[in-house]
Amino acid sequence: MLKKLLIMTITALTIVSVVGCSSQSKTSQSTVKKPDKIVIAYLPDEATEKTAEYRQGLQKDMEKALGVKVQEYLCSDYNAAIEGMKAGKVDIADFGPLSYVQAHKRAKAVPLVVPALDSDKSKAGYYSYIITQANNNSINSINDLKGKTFAFVDPDSTSGNLVPSKAIIDANSGENLTIDDLHANGKFFKSVTYSGSHQNGLLSVAKGDIDAAPCASDTFSIETTNGQVDKNKVKIVYTSPIIPGSPVAIRGDLDPNFIKQVKNFYLKYNNDSYFKNFVGEKDGQKMRYVSAEDSDYKYISDLATKFGLN
């Protein structure tokens, strides 16, 4: 009798345990608070007609995977993406390293992923070029820029402002230049402006409208490979050290479990056309997303602090 009672008690406890686990599992699944929709912001270099097909392809795949509507927001500049996220109107953005650092500080952005060659994070990075016309014999290195016309990309651009500014200041250490000097007509450059995008700066150089400009290496590769710019009309006179890759970041105030789902989507995304035509994968390469961490951008954050850009 006691043995039978003991068996019944153990059985009851087992059922309660199983039911409890099942209930907890259902509760865990239901605790993911998904927004009604998510908005992905694209910066000027990405918000082009020729990349629209691939952006929209990712959005459809994301809607299917996450079960939420996905919309895009084409930004006029880096600051618009940051302010949009701060106001809760933008949920995800493909930031540059500097604009990510600023978004982390101002809009509580957190990094999700970064594109990397062969899914190897040590290969997740790009370069800042300074370019001029191929037949411009007066500019052959970064030391030949004084007195020329120049177009930075955007105040919040890493490879289009922060990194080339540091390089020019370092190359002209005897001039005691400040970053403000580089952005004032007649101080160092004959005239200086912002092009608004890496493509605009590259095209302006190729057409001879300005003497020189910085350009992100991935943009340079895409534009010259696709024939948008004749690579024989421009030359690279400076290449920076490698810059940490540009991260996809998300609003940090969204549900943590939903953020994990979004990150997992990017990490598993395997669309060849997207990586070739949007991210900048070259023939013979394979780029995919790998995990990004805030600590990856400490060098950029320190540099931004030094120049008062964060």
Automatic annotation (TrEMBL):
Cellular component, GO annotation: ATP-binding cassette (ABC) transporter complex
One matching Pfam family: Phosphonate-bd
Keywords of this entry: Signal
Taxonomic superkingdom: Bacteria
One GO BP: transmembrane transport
PROSITE patterns in the record: PROKAR_LIPOPROTEIN
Signal peptide: 1-20
Family to which this protein belongs: Belongs to the phosphate/phosphite/phosphonate binding protein family.
UniProt name for this protein: Phosphonate transport system substrate-binding protein
